[in-house]
Amino acid sequence: MPETSRRGLLFGTAAVSAGALLTACTSNEPKKETPAADSRPAADDKPGKHVTIGFAGPKADHGWLNAINENAKARAGKYSDVTLEITGGSNDIAAQIGQIDTLINKKVDVLVILPADGKALTQVGLKAMKAGIPVVNLDRVFASPQAYRCWIGGDNYGMGLNAGRFIGERLKDKPDAKVVELAGMDNLELTKQRTQGFDDALKNYPNIKKVARQAADFTVETGQAKMAQLLQAQKQFDALWNHDDDQGVGALRAIQQAGRDDFLMVGGAGAKSAMDAIKADDSVLKATVLYPPTMAASAIDLARALGQGKGVGGLSELEIPASLTLYSAVVTKDNVDEYLPTGFR
């Protein structure tokens, strides 16, 4: 690829409307118009230069990961000038590298990559960038900023922080309050960040003490088993912070089986099942902190715009930002109707 063309791709600007992207990534307040990604008006949907986008993610063996794939496909389908080349997905690092290599060899215009392991896949991101294919790094960040043109993802620290603030405000007047934590996978940096955010928030509430923590590996079965252990070990506590709504399905089963209703529960990610339970208000689950899979739709917007060399509506800069962090909104009974259409299954 000629250097001028390569430079145009790597430093070209993106066309993503302020309503479709900036609201999703920066707003701290719930909006009345927050439908699911596949029903929002596509950003700058006036047809332009045709763009082939390669999309590579891990295996969709989890509700959130499946929603990532569905959001990407639905968003690409809104554009008549976009062809989406999507891989089968894999949690095996070597297999995912091979899938991305195939997309590079096909000479797609832009790559969107959600790596199974950001550090381990950094080299293939660098390879794509060196080949003149700009990379939109989705969620799990590569080890080098040279491996991507733009990163977009959720705020793991913010999830824990907002969960802790919500619980803290509910328990701030209760002497000697106790909380427990059902984490995800402890070998993942995102889990450490969620725990750190939670712990930092609780520092503002000296009356609250975290008395137990278990890692539940993001599965329904492990969520149920680990929650049962917590319930047996902790005969009394006031709140539970659960990192993930999928494992939360199992946690709620264990809670119901134990006949416990003496505490409040805050979930994480934004599954439809969790939002339904919050709306029904007939269980301990009172809130969930979002980690929106709609980020995949915004990644497609960014990729299309990079390929077309367009700009971001509502911003003065000529280039798209180097990174975009989505806000971790807290969904409660008061605002669940606004967020329910974005809930994933």
Descriptive tags:
345 residues, alpha/beta, Rossmann fold, 6-stranded parallel sheet, disordered N terminus, SBP_2_dom, signal, Peripla_BP_I, TAT_signal
Question: Would you give an account of this structure?
Answer:
It is a single chain. The chain is of the alpha/beta class and 345 residues long. It has 2 domains: 3-154 and 293-327, Rossmann fold; 156-290, Rossmann fold, CATH 3.40.50.2300. It is built from 12 helices and 12 strands. It has a 6-stranded parallel beta sheet with strand order 2-1-3-4-5-11, with helices on both faces. Helix 3 packs parallel to helix 11 (295-308). The longest helix has 16 residues, at 156-171. The model is unreliable at 1-42 (pLDDT under 50).
Structural class of the secondary elements?
alpha/beta
Number of separate domains: 2
SSE succession: HHEHEHEHEEHEHEHEHEHEHEEH
CATH class of the largest domain: Alpha Beta
Uncertain residue segments = 1-42
How much helix, percentage-wise, in residues? 40-55%
Query: Count the helices. How many?
Result: 12
Shape: elongated
Strand order of the largest sheet: 2-1-3-4-5-11
Query: What's the mean pLDDT score?
Result: 87
- At the fourth level of CATH, the homologous superfamily of the largest domain is Response regulator
Distance between the termini: 42 Å
Computed Rg: 21 Å
Q: Please report the total strand number as a whole number.
A: 12
Largest sheet: 6 strands, parallel
Family: Belongs to the bacterial solute-binding protein 2 family.
InterPro entries: Peripla_BP_I, SBP_2_dom, TAT_signal
Organism: Streptomyces sannanensis
Keywords: Signal
